[in-house]
Each structure stands twice: as C-alpha cells, then as structure tokens.
C-alpha cells in the first residue's frame, strides 16, 4: 500500500502513519478487507439511490454516471490546514482586487507588473465589463482553488477556478456517505464539519445584493438537465432554500430582473449563475444563446442585480495569468504568497518558449483556457509524434500554452479490486468571498482511480474521497490562535 516514490497522505513510511492519520489507521486495523468492500458497495448503492451523478459529454456508454467515490478518507491535520486556509484567503482577496483593477484603473498594467497584451489576448477577458465594479468589489464570490503536493509534501496551487467552479455538492454528499458507512470509525475523530457550507453560500450571495435592498431574493440559474453539474445546481438550490431557474424563467423589464411565478413577477436581486459568460445574455455576448436572459447585463451594469460569479472573472484563471499571481499578491497586499505556485513557463515569452520546446519530453504542457484535464500533454509519457504535434501547436499559438514540470502528485490509500493501493490525488478547497471570506474546511479530494494516472478529473476516470480536516485536539481556541498567528505573519511579511 505504501509507495516510496511519492508523498503518501496517510503513511510516513511503510509501517508508520502520519500523526493526523494515526487514530484512523489504528481504528481501521480492526476492519477486514471484505468488510471494507461491503462498505464500499453500500456507499455506491446510496449514491445510486440518491441520484448523485455527473454527466460526461460524448461518453460511449451514456451521459449520466454515478459519482465515483472511495471509502477511505484523506486526512489533514489542523496545523497544516491553518496555513492552507490563510493562503487561500490571501489568494482570493488579491485576485478580487486584481479583477476589479483590470476592469477599471488598470494600475497593475501601468506599473508594469502584468503585461497589457496578456490581458487583451485572454479569451476570458470581457471588455464589455470595463468601468464596472460589483457590490463589495467581490467578483469571485465562489472560487475553487486546486492544490497538489509534490514529493516534498508541500501544498502548491495548481490552478485557480473562478468562473463557475463545481464539485462542492459532492464534498457535502461524500461526508454524509462517510457518516453512514463508517459511522463507528467517524465518531470521535474530531473532524471539522462542512455542513454549514450552504448557509455560508446563501449568506455570501445575500450580502452581495445591490445596496438598499432590505430583503434580497436569490436564485440559482442553471443551463438545464444536460449540464454536467446539474445535480449540483439542484442540490445547492434545495440546500439554500432558493429557486432553481432557467433562462426562460427570468425576464428583464426596465433594467430589473424578474422571475415568472404562478402569482406573477417577483423581483430577483442575486443570481448564482451556473452558465458560462458566453451564454448569459444574447444581447451582450453570443446572439444565438437560448440559455441566458436578454438584457441581464444591462440590469447588472445598472446595479439592479448581482451575478455570482460576476462575468469576466475568468480573466484571472487564465493559466498564463496564473503565472503572475505571486506578483499580484505582492502588488495588492504587500505580502509574500503563503501558498506557492507550481513553477510555470509562459510560451508567449520567446526565451521561455525556446526552453519549453527544447525540454518538451520533461514538461507538462497545458492550453491556457481548457478545463477538465483536456488538451494536456504529459511530456515524459507522450509519444514522439504527440510531442511533435504539441511543438507545432505551441509555435502556431504560443499565447495559448504554458508548461510546468511534471509533478509527482501525492498518493492516498484507495480501495481497488486488488485491495488497498496508492492512487494519486489533488484537492479543491472552496472559498466564498462577499463581505467576508469563508474557506470550507478541506474540500474535494479527487483521486485518479486508474493505476499510475495523474488525471484526477471525473470526466476522465477520476473519483473522489471525503476530506477530513481534524480539529485542534487542544480546542477551538487554539485553532483560532494558530490561524490568527499565521494570518498575522503573512500580513507582516
């Protein structure tokens, strides 16, 4: 089960569990492999019965799939998580300031920190938003920041997801499944709860309502049942107690958004939109969109409705802009980044591009605006023909590619048909930003279920684990003191 080639999340060596995992490993020692498999079957049956699914576009075996889940949790100690949480707060705060600056004064460009052409050529940059600033200057109300560990055991930020990040519903369902299938082991483990997320999300949305609205009304806007994350849209709407709507359910009159109901029109103040920018408003973006609401952007710019996340936020999760996030943090906050980036080469820079082309067989090449693991070339595992095609694409469009060293992602024990084996994992914590910043404890641990694979995305054969962030055994006060200490250290750095 233990592999010396990667950092293992549960074991420091073949016979020694890491400190946060020690109690769990001791309890697991009394569980047989057959019993573990029975618990796995029970978890999968619950997922199926509850309709907890995701959609895979173009899959030969069908569209809707039961959410893949592994019963062994990923465990993170309270002290380590305090540093991660502080780093996430810092990063999201700086990125919100960056986006507001980019669409307004553009001081960071004038001061030469971020190149102007990098912004102007970003496919996710929306010039229609120039001069706009949302309530609380919160552009990214909901962020999903992907973290990975390399062999050194240090957390690195792999990418920022600031448009319509998905996966948080599976975090909540994973926890419920663990409580059902592993109740005897779960109890007494001092796991930080995650169940308050929907309440925190609703608070963030309502706090972001236009000024002067006494009792704001929020809705979740979905593109419909065929979207890959439709389960999540329905789940979050139900958990928050708000309406799930589609574009046809909304209308704009005199720059105000209304929802059609059996009792007439009701004014809507906040829209948690799960529709991409291009399809939000056929009057402003794609004319052929039938998913959005005509006039929605007029209402937004008039200050009559808040869109979460705000259109245009994607400029900050462009993978070429990602390379500048450490400088963005330093520029806006005068702090050193708490969480480091993965070293990144931007191919639009001639010198860096030549280095990438000369070392393609050692690097991972990523398109700057793809998601879900698509378009990635793993140099050390690619064929000569694939590397040649990759080089051609880079030369033809250098702005749209970055390259990074191939990380040896950390592993976690995972139940397979052959027993417990290490599988590579990453972590997507979720961050809410409104009047305040809230970080969900833990997040979505994604696991590459295929042996040796580094691709953790569910659309490409990945699964998930429940993520346990342990509370401070000395008590909540110590947790707050540690978090305060780390935040204070970051502010004075």
UniProtKB/TrEMBL annotation:
Superkingdom to which the source organism belongs: Bacteria
Q: Which InterPro entries match?
A: ATP-dep_Glu-Cys_Ligase-2, CP_ATPgrasp_2, UCP005522
Q: What is this protein called?
A: Circularly permuted ATP-grasp type 2 domain-containing protein
PANTHER family registered for this protein in UniProt: BLR5612 PROTEIN, SLL1039 PROTEIN
Q: Where is the Circularly permuted ATP-grasp type domain?
A: 73-448
Q: Which Pfam families match?
A: CP_ATPgrasp_2
